[in-house]
Task: structure prediction
Amino acid sequence: MKSRIFVLVWSVVLVSCAPSSRLIVGTRPPLPSTSPYSSLKTEIDALLPDTLFPPAQVGIKIVSLRSGETLYELNPDYLYLPASNEKLLTSAAALAVLGENYRFATQVCFDTVASPRIYVKGSGDPMLITADIDSIARLVGPHLPAGKRWILCADLSLFDDVSWGQGWTWDDEPSTDAMFITPLSVNGNGVTVRALPAATVGEQPIVSLEPLTSSISVENTAQTVADSVRTPLRITRKWRERSNTITVSGELLVSSPGTRERLSVWQPEWYTLTLFREALAAQGVQCEGLVADTIPVTAVELFRFERRLDSVVTYMNKVSDNLSAENILKTLAAVKVGLPGSGDAGMSIVKGFLTVNGIDTTKIVLADGSGVSRYNLLSPSAIIRLLMSMYGKPEYFSAWYRSLPIAGEDGTLASRMRGTAAEHNLRAKTGTLNGVSNLSGYVNTADGELLAFSIFMQDYPGEVNVLRRVQDKIGTLLAELRRGRL
Result:
């Protein structure tokens, strides 16, 4: 028995040491990419560095919108995390189903039949800010019956009470990337916290909130220090306690220019209503309590604050705003299915839109409207199908195309591809999660031929800028492309 074991082990050693004709140091197997143009295939393949493989997974598809010809593809039907490329689906469906002129209408009404009450009905407007609240209060204040003490009511009937998207992770809190979803929103359902060093070492840093409101409190245990930081300054919210108490701890150098942090707000509908109560108080209107209630038929409308869908879609895609996407998803449901609007019902509308436009929804996974969820799975081929279909729908393509970030100019592409042929030319939606970076959209070649492209990259443990640089090089290559040189 011992001799047999020895022979077996020695055989394994000999096999493992034997030279292999398949392994050649310093080279990689050819990428499984295809193109009818060998020069284009070679150029794009060369832009994908060996350092991405492994572990990164890359999928690319590039199509001419003039001829429908596929110019290049690499793993186009594999499924990837779309991240904020998901917003392409949400915005396209919204423009097609609701129309660019659809209005998010925040209503303010009052009623004195049972008791003096002021109602604010949330419309799902994701772009409402403190300045809007103040303006509404100034406009309605003079028209309210004088000498009454009001109860301020939030009508939240437009959406259901599910405050996060499907598949969002618990440790996203308190990031404003995973803000809470409600039809009555303000400031992206977040608050800005600023900390400046005190003038004297040993004192607490100066902490301020934007906006300043009684609905948010601060616990400041931090300290201003002279020359070395042992415990870095930390600004967070007591999210485990479901509290809107901001905590500031650690140390801040006296020479520091200060720091700024954006945090989500727990139950943002009450944050919004409190800001409105404070704005009404500045107009001499006193409100005793805050409650949730629907507007009765006896109520009188005082004011309607409206915002067009195309403005929201542009804001959503340019800056990649998650709240806009989730509010649009639930608005689709509320308008087309019925109250209260839910994410699930909204997603069924998006899937129906995709099916009509030639995308097989049985081969993808859709969970939320924004792409925060890691349940989502899309392919470059599905995105290209959408880009091509939207291009063929002039009745809403223009608004959709305008909503996309422009390379070197605005939105999430403001600092990318500057000084290249893609600057002021390429329009595309970014998508970023940990280990994920995507870019999908349109670019004009040097010949004026409009191309649709989708680049998905995931499972990369390094800096996301590595992936973005590759995408930018591909975008620039496409912008420089001339048919005569293929």
Q: What stands out?
A: Confidence is low (pLDDT under 50) at residues 1-26.
